[in-house]
Amino acid sequence: MEPLIEQMIEKQIEFSTGTGYPGAPKPEDVIRDLREQGVEIPPTMPPEDVEEKIVTGLETLLDRYCQAVKAIEINGADYHEGSYVYKCVHPRLGKFYIYLSELEEATSGKSTLSVKFTRNQAEALQRFNDYFEYLLDKYDATDLESLEKELEQHGFEVWAII
Question: Residue 72 burial by CB count (10 A; 0-12/13-18/19+): exposed, middle or buried?
């Protein structure tokens, strides 16, 4: 497993990154934030390499050791928005949870990714529930069914594990 990801799990790190938005954190900002949270990143490693190691390491971790327990995705032409809670079990690191949210607008080049590693299941689930409530408010819906109907009228598909 990627050592940067191992540190993030052990220290229960939270980080966000993005592109195309005003005020989106630059790679150097993300690295500084991770260092402030105690993640050891070699000073000579270029920021782009750090981001690639984190993304690749996270994808590998999710594929090998994690299972989605809550998820909602909204997909449209050139648009993807998602919120997920993963339960992970690693032979050496034990059980932990990942809360992940992402947004990608392909035509504008805008994207965001937020990740929180935690050993507290309730914390991860609360973040998911807060995001789901945000979606209900944003689309003036009362539950998953009404959210799906509202979004489908605008050409979006919804997939969920609630």
Answer: buried
| pLDDT, tens digit, 9 for 90 and up, residues 93-120 | 999 999 999 999 988 888 999 999 999 9
The backbone torsions φ and ψ at residue 10, rounded to the nearest 5 degrees and listed phi first, read -60, -35
DSSP string, 37-99: TT----TTS-HHHHHHHHHHHHHHHHHHHEEEEEEEEEEETTEEEEEEEEEEEETTTEEEEEE
Cβ-proximal residues to 130 (8 Å cutoff; 6+ apart), any chain: none
Q: How many Å apart are CA 58 and CA 62, to the nearest integer?
A: 6
Q: Sort strands 157-161 and 110-118 into parallel, antiparallel or unpaired.
A: unpaired
**DSSP character at residue 17:** E
Cβ–Cβ < 8 Å for 102, 112? yes
Rounded Cα distance between 68 and 62, Å, is 9
pLDDT band (50, 70, 90) for residue 123: very high
Give bridge partners of residue 115 from the DSSP assignment. Answer: 15, 100
| CA dihedral angle for residue 63, residue 111, residue 29, residue 22, rounded to 10 degrees | -170
Put simply, whether the predicted model's pTM sits higher than 0.90 gets the answer: yes
CA distance 85 to 128: 7
